[in-house]
Write a structure and sequence with these properties.
Helix content: 25-40%
CATH class of one domain: Alpha Beta
Distance between the termini: 40 Å
Bound molecules: magnesium ion
Structural class: alpha/beta
Number of strands: 8
Order of helices and strands: HHEEEHEHEHEHEHEH
CATH topology of one domain: Rossmann fold
CATH architecture of one domain: 3-Layer(aba) Sandwich
Number of helices: 8
Length: 179
């Protein structure tokens, strides 16, 4: 498996500097992928507070931030509202199509999109995204193509790690003066 340290090369820094939008999957990225059903039929998911805190920093820095999920859950709607996400597309079978709609709506180029996913249904979106990131415990197919593999596993601050990296690149001046 590729370690995050090995993946941080200059081309990755350049890719990160172009990013204007961070899109991510929910199950296995914001959560550890477990779904608990209550007797009343609701779904219970566990979110990480550290992801939430960094999302407000991303938004303050002008990033477009949102969810593309294959499943549909009230817990995700609530979390997306709480985090004031720009969009929360759930129950999406064709995630690449949804990504295309988001690109049109927000006038985004492929190189301006970072996407975090963990499973094979994310592969079509990765084909569109300029910056591809995944949790440490993503499936092999995703690990193979990812630009950045986080140290964190799903639900343990994956969004935080990617966002910290993107924000750090935005803050750096493009041309450093020679001494
Ligand atoms: Mg997933």
């Amino acid at each position: 498996m590729k370690t995050p340290q090995k993946r941080v090369d200059k081309s990755l820094l350049r890719k990160a500097a172009d990013i204007r939008a961070l899109l991510f999957d929910v199950d296995g990225v914001m959560t550890d992928g477990k779904i608990i059903y209550t007797s009343s039929g609701d779904e219970v998911k566990e979110f990480n507070v550290r992801d939430g805190i960094i999302i407000s920093s991303l938004k303050k820095s002008g990033f477009i931030v949102g969810i593309i999920s294959g499943r549909e859950s009230g817990a995700v709607t609530r979390r997306a509202t709480e985090l004031k996400l720009d969009f929360c597309h759930q129950g999406i079978e064709d995630k690449a199509w949804a990504c295309g709609q988001i690109m049109k709506h927000h006038q985004l180029k492929e190189k301006e999109i970072a996407y975090i996913g963990d499973d094979i249904n994310d592969l079509p979106v990765f084909a569109l995204a300029g910056f591809k990131a995944c949790p440490a415990d993503a499936c092999e197919e995703v690990l193979d193509i990812a630009d950045m593999v986080t140290r964190a596993k799903g639900g343990r601050g994956v969004v935080r790690e990617v966002a910290d990296f993107l924000l750090a690149q935005k803050k750096k001046p493009k041309f450093e003066k020679r001494k």
